Fold this sequence. Notes:
Low-confidence stretches: none
CATH topology: Arc Repressor Mutant, subunit A
Order of helices and strands: HHHEEHHH
Strand content: 5-15%
Helix content: 40-55%
Number of helices: 6
Shape: elongated
Distance between the termini: 27 Å
Number of strands: 2
Mean pLDDT: 88
Number of domains: 1
Structural class: mainly alpha
Amino acid sequence: MIRVNKKIEYGVLALLYLADKEDKAASVREMASNCGVPETLLSKIMQSIKNVGYVSAVYGNQGGYKLTKELSEITLLGLTEALDGPIQVAECLEEGTRTCPAKASCRIVAPMNVLNQKIVELFHATSLDTLYVTTEEASEKVAVS
């Protein structure tokens, strides 16, 4: 099964939560509580997100994290690579791994490489602002369903 893992999902939720805060900082505890995610994991995620410059740390009583980039400037690819490394749909495509003994005659390595590239392109073209809905909009969508 191919899916976006929890680190990426939680990272998206945290960044969208910060977008709701506009220019105010939010603590990891606040974000974890409001997003329903584990605080210890979110703390590690936020450090990685900070390291790539999507958020900054604010120190003091009203400290926490706040966005330093617009959601339109943050791609799903950038966030994925920051939290999980490069996208690789097959182990043989990952740089630095042992070469598969069947790689030279493998019938699926080329198509898997094409698939991998299409996923990378899609993640690159998907900015977080396309995933953003306000709390009210989300409630309305759920109520309509």
